[in-house]
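Sequence in, structure out.
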Amino acid sequence: MRYPLVRESGVPIRSRWKGAIKLIVNAMKLTAVLLTIGLAHVYAAGVAQSITLSGKNLPLKKVFDAIEQQTDYVVFSKKSDLQNATPLTITVHNMPLAEFLALALKDQPVSFGIEDKTSSCSKNRQWKK
């Protein structure tokens, strides 16, 4: 036979701690949710590589060097493809890589494609999406 623990006041000890246990469990659940949201935000920020660049009359080679320094991406191109490119004057802040390349190469005789951590640039042609 089980006897409930009873204090002198007549209130069982278990019922006194029941509210505190619920409060602790709810705090743990809230902590888990906030950690999950925070980690998802950090992961999303890491996946979306962004570029910050400002300059006047930059050759495309310098633009590609800035991409390689600021991201984990490598940019491949032939020197002969970049010789006819005009210097670029650009100012961007935290722009995603794909948007940045589209803006930078908009009026240039080269186009780009991105696959995994590699960006390839060559004379204007259609890239697989």
